[in-house]
Specification:
The protein is mostly helical and 335 residues long. The protein has 12 helices and 2 strands; from the N terminus they run ααααααααβαβααα. The longest helix has 21 residues. Keywords: Heme, Iron, Metal-binding, Oxidoreductase, Peroxidase.
């Protein structure tokens, strides 16, 4: 009887597993790759470098004038993004930046994470450093390597979408599934590719951008300004498709220039550009984005539950209070 009972339990379990996988209505997409969530998760040979990078990220001494650090703009309390003055390009979040393949910045001017770090270190509106000053930190190459390793640990936990992709059909409700099919039919996934729902450079239309957004220090200044002047009030610019995960961390505005104050209105406008589908069920899309792609610590994979953003206590335990610098509301370059 014991053997028969055991076989019966195994059979029932097998049926439940098959049923769980067969209930999936959304096709399978690539899964997120395992990533570190702290310096201790890196190989031992890289841990000291990562710890230096963490310290220097919050240290204003990285700037020759001693007034600005990386955290001055990318604030941990805001999900490692920054608040920019109205009408200026948003300061993007650094969360999950190690999961991205590039290009980086809003206009894609940096092809690798290392080159993306070099840019603000030397830019006069940011760290405004120089080779002699960076010798205090082992040289610019060493500094970039240290910062890169620290940034590679700023990762978020999984979202209900990931649990669903791993076979948990209860993680997405019917409205979330409908919202996914809406964004799929609208062509959103052609730019915002799973698993991070981000992508490369694409032409995007913008309306009524002020002239001072186009700065001479930008590599694409002449190209973008020329297009802007000829096409105003509408201009087409190359823009990197940002991640659609964790949009609740984006603050009170959406879009490259924060030109929309409601996610629903931004989606309506964006769908007009991409697919001209004005009748798409936008509320279901918003529901999918704000629920299915929102990280939850309890959904982290075994051994990877520690998320710096979601575990706020852990974030502030690792930020010396004297290194938290008030954000300077100076103009920032187009990102």
């Amino acid at each position: 009887m014991t053997r028969i009972a055991a076989l019966l339990v195994i059979s029932i379990t097998s049926i439940e597993v098959l049923a769980n996988h067969s209930c999936k209505l959304i096709p399978s997409f690539p899964s997120r790759t395992p990533v570190p969530f702290s310096c201790e998760d890196l190989p031992q040979a890289e841990q000291l470098s990562c710890q230096r990078g963490q310290s220097r990220f919050f240290d204003s001494k990285i700037s020759p004038k001693g007034v600005k650090s990386c955290a001055s703009c990318h604030q941990a309390s805001l999900g490692f993004r920054g608040e920019a003055p109205p009408g200026t390009p948003k300061i993007p979040s650094l969360l999950d930046i190690g999961r991205r393949a590039g290009p980086f910045f809003w206009n894609g001017r940096a092809s690798t994470l290392a080159s993306a770090i070099f840019w603000p270190l030397y830019h006069p509106n940011e760290i405004d450093g120089n080779p002699d000053h960076f010798k205090l930190f082992g040289g610019s190459t060493q500094l970039v390597q240290d910062l890169s390793r620290y940034l590679s640990t700023l990762n978020t936990a999984d979202a209900p979408w990931d649990a669903y992709q791993h076979g948990d059909c209860t993680s997405l409700d019917s409205r979330s599934i409908q919202g996914f099919f809406e964004i799929s039919e609208a062509g959103c996934l052609s730019c915002h590719n799973p698993p991070e729902f981000s992508g490369g450079l694409h032409k995007i239309f913008y309306r009524n951008l002020p002239n001072d957004l186009f700065q001479e220090s930008e590599p694409r200044y002449l190209v973008d300004l020329d297009l802007h002047q000829k096409a105003k009030p509408i201009v087409s610019l190359w823009s990197v498709a940002p991640s659609l995960r964790n949009l609740s961390f984006e603050g009170q505005s959406f879009g490259r220039f924060g030109q929309h104050y409601q996610l629903e209105s931004f989606i309506h406008y964006h769908l007009w550009q991409v697919s001209a589908k004005g009748a798409t069920n936008v509320p279901d899309i918003v529901f999918f984005l704000m629920n299915s792609l929102q990280s939850r610590p309890e959904l982290g994979k075994a051994g990877h539950q520690r998320s710096l953003w979601l575990d706020v206590e852990h974030v502030f335990q690792n930020i010396p209070s004297q290194r938290i610098i008030t954000f300077s509301k100076t103009r920032h370059m187009i990102r």
